[in-house]
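Dear colleague,

Thank you for sharing your sequence with our group. We've completed the structure prediction you requested, and as agreed, I am returning the results in plain text so they can be pasted directly into your records. Please verify that the sequence below matches your submission; if there's any discrepancy, let me know and we will rerun it promptly.
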Amino acid sequence: MTSYAYFVQTCREEHKKKHPDENVVFSEFSRKCAERWKTMSEKEKKRFQEMADRDKSRYENEMQHYVPPVGEKRGKKRAKDPNAPKRSLSAFFWFCNDERAAIKQSNPEYRVGDVAKELGKLWGQVEPDVKRKYEAMAERDKARYEREMAAYKNRGKAPMGGHEGEEEEEEDEDEGDDDEY
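Please find the predicted structure tokens below.
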């Protein structure tokens, strides 16, 4: 925990002791803690910094000796099938594909984030008829994706009247995967 987190925790405990039955509005309490923290001297903050330093030492010591439980794997993402259809693009992404080059050309000093911010501003100012054009493109692309995905999922399955007793073992595609953009 940080020194500020220890400070807020201490403030909360003090407040509960003084007002045990009072319901605390977190936003107000947090704002008051922040104001109090800003006005504190370094000497007053030192106590909380020492608590944070001890906690950091404890954490580092525990992590040196930490052994994850057997069979537990972290951060491994299921491999995406390279033959799966590409996800459909939203109207905004179709708009970005058309406008990105013009923004980069007129603002060569812009970084990726700056270009994205500019595209977002422009999208918010686009005329409704232009927006409809991109929304229609997105609908066509969504229909394409749904057709391709249905065909992809049906690949390898037995035709209608197929053999009895065959099991279909196919995993559903992770539809929340946005790494194509």
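Summary note from our side: Residues 161-181 have pLDDT under 50 and may be disordered.

Kind regards,
the structure core
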